[in-house]
Amino acid sequence: MGTPGAQKEAERVLIDTYGRVATDLRVSLTDRCNLRCTYCMPEEGLQWLAKPELLTDDEIVRMVRIAVTDLGVRDVRFTGGEPLLRPGLVGIVERCAALEPRPKISLTTNGIGLKRTAAALRDAGLDRVNVSLDTLRPEVFQAMTRRKRHHDVIGGLAAARAAGLAPVKVNTVLMRGMNDDEAPDLLRWAVDHDYELRFIEQMPLDAQHGWQRSDMVTAEEILESLRTRFTLTPEESSTRGSAPAERWLVDGGPARVGVIASVTRPFCRACDRTRLTADGQVRNCLFAREESDLRGALRSGAPDAAIADLWKAAMWGKKAGSGLDDPSFLQPERPMSAIGG
Ligand SMILES: Nc1nc2c(ncn2[C@@H]2O[C@H](COP(=O)(O)OP(=O)(O)OP(=O)(O)O)[C@@H](O)[C@H]2O)c(=O)[nH]1
Ligand SMILES: C[S@@+](CC[C@H](N)C(=O)[O-])C[C@H]1O[C@@H](n2cnc3c(N)ncnc32)[C@H](O)[C@@H]1O
Ligand code: SF4
Ligand code: SF4
Fold first, then answer.
1. Sequence ranges of the domains in the chain
2. Complex ipTM, two decimals?
3. What digits encode the pLDDT tens for the residues 149-163?
4. Does domain 20-339 have CATH number 3.30.70.260?
5. What is the position in ligand 4's atom list of the atom closest to the CA of 324?
6. What is the pLDDT of residues 33-50, one digit of tens each?
7. Is the pLDDT score of 238 beyond 60?
8. Is the backbone of residue 13 left (phi > 0), alpha (psi -120 to 50) or beta?
9. Does the beta carbon of 40 sit less than 6 angstroms from any atom of ligand 3?
10. Where is this region: Disordered (predicted)?
């Protein structure tokens, strides 16, 4: 039995039946994107959400405020779709950075447009940024994203570093027959440019339902490939916490490389995440098949306390894990770009 004080405190957190507490909020600002990564969406794009369905900037800030001041959220990450396509992004970051207690604020982006916005985002209060880049070869970039924007991403990364949004992390998905030979080159380049590279196992979250486990480049394969050129020493496991990436020191450090083995070594037991979609649905897991409609409550005039209660209820029912290994696994209806990756 806890003390009444501890009980009171427990009422103000997003806890689930397994005792996990969500303190990391990922907010999708839009489902739209200016790339078409093959592992994420089809060439023709998707049926985008209509503007009235999207939370307004004010609604987003209110939701973040409730999460931070009433529900114990400490980290806020803006993602999408492509969050830099959201016109009000700088203002949203600025208003979230003014909250008390101030959350740590980060952004996951494809980097296009970062050259123009990195300094303004830093001034608004953005703490750090993760940029997705799968290849150093412009022609492979074009094949993987169906757009000729490699140069813009490289420029965006440099701008993020120059703006001091450290550490700048780079997310890479390896696809068989496309860029799976590039892991060591990418790591050499990242170390030389002071970016922290992480490889991500491909997950079944693409709109086309094209994922096949047998095709996926596994964490083991990636590490094997890196070890042909680098010495990797595991970082103390105590530093991983709830972070999805397992990290290795490169050639004795200080440079590091991470691998996010979402499929072969899932990290669900330590999961600390809650998600808000661009249309105001709370999801308790990336792979959840249910969502809780908080936009409806928001727009029908519900007070903060009622919204906080709905959020807590949504998180309470979080499943133990992604269910990826269950024979009955079904991909969520929304793809990664609409959930907020
Ligand atoms: N299974 C699972 N994978 C996730 C989750 N969140 C992020 N990922 C994967 O991890 C990748 C990297 O996510 P990022 O948005 O860059 O951030 P992060 O790794 O969560 O955060 P930091 O290391 O704190 O910067 C995503 O592209 C996803 O593939 C999650 O909640 N569950
Ligand atoms: C959905 S995107 C959203 C933010 C931004 N557009 C970007 O690409 O960084 C977030 C991350 O999800 C990753 N991602 C997308 N589809 C994925 C999949 N099927 N499996 C694993 N990671 C995926 C991307 O590589 C990216 O790092
Ligand atoms: S991974 Fe990011 S950049 Fe690529 S299509 Fe999906 S949302 Fe766009
Ligand atoms: S799959 Fe779900 S439970 Fe597992 S780490 Fe991701 S969000 Fe958390």
1. 20-339
2. 0.98
3. 999 999 999 999 999
4. no
5. 1
6. 999 999 999 999 999 999
7. no
8. beta
9. yes
10. 322-341
